[in-house]
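Example 404, ligand guanosine-5'-triphosphate.
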Amino acid sequence: MDPKELHSVLPHNALQEMKLAFEHQDFVAAAENIKRSLVSLDDIPLNVAVTGESGSGKSTFINVLRGLGDEEEGAAKTGVVETTVVATPYFHPRHRNVVYWDLPGIETASFKPSEYLELVKFHQFDFFFIIGSERFRNCHIELAQAINAMGKKFYFVRTKIDADLNASRRLNPRNYNEEQILTQIRENCIKGLFAGGILCPRVFLLSSFELEKYDFCLMQTTLERELPSHKRHVFLLSLPNIYTQALKMKSEAFKNQIWKHALASAAKAALPIPGLLPGSDIDYLVKVMKEYKGAFGMDQTSLAHLAQTFDKDISELRSVVRSQLTLQEITWELVESLLKRRELTAAALMVTQYAAGTVPMLGSVAAGGVAFGTAFWLLYSFLTDVAEDAGRVLSKVLENTCQY
Ligand SMILES: Nc1nc2c(ncn2[C@@H]2O[C@H](COP(=O)(O)OP(=O)(O)OP(=O)(O)O)[C@@H](O)[C@H]2O)c(=O)[nH]1
Ligand SMILES: [Mg+2]
């Protein structure tokens, strides 16, 4: 650490304040706990758009998702002539706050992506189903690219598989091979999307009339499983700034208080045993370090909770943590061994000398001064490591939720 950095972590006003206040002050546990807000996913609205060509089966698909027959009350209107002309919301029967939006169909011949996207107010949707029937078309790529460009996700659903298979069976009864046709259709869609720059397209083949066949079950389970992650994704999209800022603010707030803790822990150390803190002060440091871990959600309980919230294995979160100390249990013995480390003594002396420039008393009570520097350096490096690791863990969680 160079003196410039030292100045930023132990600024002049802090030293001035130290001069006046030589007594212990409890530090303010400031910033709110991000994790607590991350858990209330149920309250996050999710607007799911169902888009695609006119007549591809969008409205039928929404009825199927909601478990309604086309003619039941509350079902979306379907038909052989163009039926959906304005975006219409339909609520998910089980998931509170999930709304499927039945969008007007795309006219493939005259499709102008930008006009369509503006007309249906594409931005208001959180994720998309692109419904395609018959051939894979350019408009599918254009929709996929537009969704991608907005940083949102989509599933591509190829409907009316029953019709494709019936037609093939009729045309080519002797060589009819259902598996082969399904593979061809699937590959055609994936290749088309891939060619349009979509790296990992999610494609489901289904018939809204034969739900027990093809990919409907897979799609349902995927959706049930991924809806919460879509919600998290939506939520987290609005979060990066908030959480990085919160982490930063929290870390700053704690850093500003380090000198007080260092002082408190050194208060009893004005004893003639240079650099060695008495046991009671180690207890104090243990308490502060545990508080840091808790405040950044890096203690065992918080990590387990975070992992559970995001359906992750705790080992995945642990794997991005760089400092061993972040994951270790903070005990008296651990802190004692840390205080004896050579590099800590050297850094501590530097801090003490620097602080004594403004607060001569620190220099005059040698043992207290060294103890102050030691505690300061220990807390400072520990806090820095824990805050950085917390950032990594949250990025990991965010990264995983983004790529569902
Ligand atoms: N064979 C077959 N027909 C389907 C399937 N899904 C929908 N259809 C039929 O396709 C026609 C159009 O379905 P809709 O659900 O109204 O299509 P849409 O995309 O909402 O149409 P617009 O609102 O006009 O854009 C209807 O006659 C449906 O019964 C399917 O999986 N298989
Ligand atoms: Mg419709």
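Summary: Residues 58-59, 83-84, 102 surround magnesium ion (ligand 2) (CB under 6 Å).
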